[in-house]
Amino acid sequence: MFTGIIQSVGKIESIEDTGGDRAFSIDLGDLNVSDIALGDSIAISGVCLTAVAFGDNSFRADVSKETLSVTTMGDFTVGDQVNLELALTPTTRLGGHMVSGHVDGVGQVVDRYQDGRSERIVIAAPLELSRYIAAKGSICVDGVSLTVNEVSDDKFGVNIIPHTVEQTNLGRCQSGVRVNLEIDVIARYLERLLTAGGVQADKAEEIILAGSGNIDPPRA
């Protein structure tokens, strides 16, 4: 699990085709990996990958054909900047929201403009994900935890403050750029509860309110 708070911006050092899959070597930037071991997870622009080898200031990860097809990793070229985050620990500050590193789909930036000192980015999401995106809810864009400002049909807007522009790769997000999207996991589980008949609509509302701290959790 991750938080969506980017710890470093790295760079793709090399890409090797390995019989349909690919092996990526990724420069770690200033990411501190002193307590990381082989087999640990690192999120690369929102994609949870396993470190299979380490270099002087880099690590290697194998990326399956499935991951290449459902994320933007199939678009990556040598030199591309990527957002890096280590998996959280029990003592990690949860500054963003709970992020699994399992990308739900790929969106596309359709507009970007100045909004005070911040910048507003408008992203078109796949239709099958749109129903999970809510105003003032959380979403993960290329591994960055962001708050949804508004939703209109299959598009949603987020604000990027100057600090986020400086500390992540979202500065590259001009119109036409594809980005990895992960929706809030609570929306997934709530839909499952409803469609499986495991909870009635009024109970679902209680669960939502309990999650926000407004009422006591419902009892079975």
Q: Strand sequence of the main sheet, in spatial order?
A: 4-3-7-1-2-6-5
Shape: globular
Mean pLDDT: 89
- Fraction in beta strands: 35-45%
Count the helices. How many? 5
Q: Please report the total strand number as a whole number.
A: 13
| Rg measurement, Å | 18 Å
Please give a structural write-up.
The protein has helices spanning 65-70, 127-130, 162-167, 185-195, 201-211, and strands at residues 8-18, 21-27, 41-44, 47-50, 53-54, 58-63, 81-86, 105-115, 118-124, 138-141, 144-152, 155-160, 178-183. Strand 1 (8-18) and strand 2 (21-27) form a beta hairpin. With 220 residues, the protein is of the alpha+beta class. The protein has 2 domains: 8-86, Elongation Factor Tu (Ef-tu), domain 3, CATH 2.40.30; 105-183, Elongation Factor Tu (Ef-tu), domain 3 (Beta Barrel), CATH 2.40.30. The longest helix is centred in the C-terminal third of the chain and has 11 residues, at 185-195. The strands form 2 sheets. The protein has a 7-stranded antiparallel beta sheet with strand order 4-3-7-1-2-6-5. It has a 6-stranded antiparallel barrel with strand order 8-9-12-11-10-13. Helices cover 17% and strands 38% of the residues.
